[in-house]
Sequence to fold (319 residues):
Amino acid sequence: MKKSLPVLGIFSIVILAFIFIYLLIPNIVTTSRDTDVRVNQQGLFRSLVQETQWGKWWPGTVLETANGIKPRFFYHGFEYSITEKKISSFLIDVRDSSGDFSAKTSLNLFPLNPDSVKMEWAKSSVTSYNPVKRVALFRQSKKLDNDFAKILAEIHAYFSKTENVYGYRIHEDLVTDSLLAYNFATVTNYPTNQFIYGLLDEVKAHIDRESAQVTGIPMLNISTTDSIHFLTRVAIPVNKRVSPSGNIAYKWMMGGGKILVADVTGGPATVNDALQKIKNYADDHQRVAMAIPFQSLVTNRLEVTDTAKWVTRIFYPVK
Fold:
C-alpha cells in the first residue's frame, strides 16, 4: 500500500498539470500587438498594398514567385501569405515551417489624425486537445506575438520617413520668390528643351528692357488636356513689377504663403511622377492647391543633356 502512494502522487500531479494546461491555455488564442506611426493612413495603405515593395522594409527573407506579383515572406521560422486586401486592413495567414502551427491574422490601420496611424496586428490561432501539442502550439503563438512586435517596429522606422511613403522627401516651406515675369505658349507634342528655354530667353530679354533683376531660378509648368497640345508656362523671379508685352506678363504670388517642396533628380518622367506623388501628399493631408504647381529648373537642361543628372525643385502651393 505504501508503494502505491508515490505512484498515486505522480498520477495526481500529472492530472493537475493537465487541468492547469487546459485552464490556462485556451483552445483558441487571440492576441494583438500595435504601434503608432507618424504617417497618413491613405499614404501608408497606398504603399503597403504593393506587395512587391514590402522587401524594402521586411526584416526577413522575401522570395519572388514565378509571376513576380505575389512574393513569399519569411521571418523567424514563419511564412506570411497575404490572402486579402481590404480598405484599411490586410488579412495574412501565418504558418511555421513544420506546418503544425497556423494563425489567421489581420494587419489593421486606424487613422488617429491626418498625420498619424495606429497599426494593430491581431491574430487568432487554434491549439490542440493533446496537452503536449497544446503547450507547443501556445509557445509558437507567443513567439509569433514577439515577431509581430519586431515587424511593426520595422514598419514604424521605415514609414515614419515621408520619402518612403511618397517616394520623395516632401516638406513645407514659405513662398519667397513672389514677383514673377511670366510667359506662355502652346505647342503640339511635349515641348522640347529648346522650346522651353526659348520662352525663357524672351522673358530674360524683357527683364533687361525693364531694367529689372533676376532673383531666382527659372520656373516651368507643362499641362495638357488631350496629350497632344501642351500649354507651356515659364516664369523668372524678379525684384520688381514688369510691364506686359505680348504673352509676357507680371505675376504675383503671395509672399509667405505655404508651399510643398521636393527635390527630384531625373528626367521628365521622374518629374511627372514626383508631381503626382506630391498631389497625393496634398490630398492625403487635406491640403487645398492654391495655384498651379511648378518646376524650378535647378539644372540648365540645355547645358546638361544627361537627364539622370537633372535636378528639379518642385513647388506645390497649398492652403
In short: The CA atoms of residues 255 and 299 lie 25 Å apart. The chain has two domains: 27-160, 171-317. The helical segments are 4-24, 41-48, 131-159, 162-166, 193-209, 268-284.
